[in-house]
Amino acid sequence: MRLVWQLLAVALIAFLGGQGLYAADGSPWLQLAIGAVTAVVAVVVYRWVVAKTERRDVAELGRPGAVGGTLLGTVLGVAMFGFVIANIAFLGHYTVDGLGSPQGAVGLVGFMAAAAVTEELLFRGVLLRIVEGWFGTWIALGSTSLLFGLSHLTNPNATLWGAIAIAIEAGGMLGAAYIATRRLWLPIGLHFGWNVAASAIFSTEVSGNGTPQGLLDAATTGPVAVSGGAFGPEGSGYAVFAGTVLTIVFLLIAKRRGNIKPLRRRGERGEPAATLPR
After folding, report:
1. Which is deepest, 30, 55, 119, 191, by most CB within 10 Å?
2. Which residues sit opposite 220 in a β-bridge?
3. pTM higher than 0.85 for the full model?
């Protein structure tokens, strides 16, 4: 039952925060505040419900390394998306016409803070961690990555290829970042940095969501393999490549640290993996 209670608790905060963000449409500073509050409350609720249902210290959201891990992830996320945009622009399929909407960018930062935190708590903090305790790392990583990708099919401009790309480049990378560190701060930062770069900085479509204009007045064109089409650059081959490389790097780190959990044999009872790396 811990899986159900933990999912419900975090999902409720995500829903309420989302409703607040949409209600504040047109007020970017209010959206920023609501997004920040949603992120903080989600972390507090996750820590409470996990401690309550599992009767343990919530090491995956421990305070030591929280700032450093989140900042590192944010920088990596922005750099990764910058790499994708640079390659699309090199081929002439990303152009900037000038300054876009700085205020719009502020509101998008709030949206992405709430989305990054709540989605990482749900998919990596609850699902991957608990499934890994039942079936081992590889089944947990593969299944939750696929589910993460499929969850994006409900977006307005979603495509099957876009969902597959998300499963590979984001589900795999973010899950591997958690497995390598046994902390949620790095994947939260990666998720936030990537989304902020895509929306608030470079003004591109994010997962087919019809994202409002950010800091730059820009346009992305060209074949889906290069630009990602209506789904956005996350459907680009460059994004899949970059995400795959980071996934491999994180998994190598996880293997070196002994963080890969084997498949459970019948009758064995595994516990959710939330130990710190050695």
Report:
1. 191
2. 94
3. yes
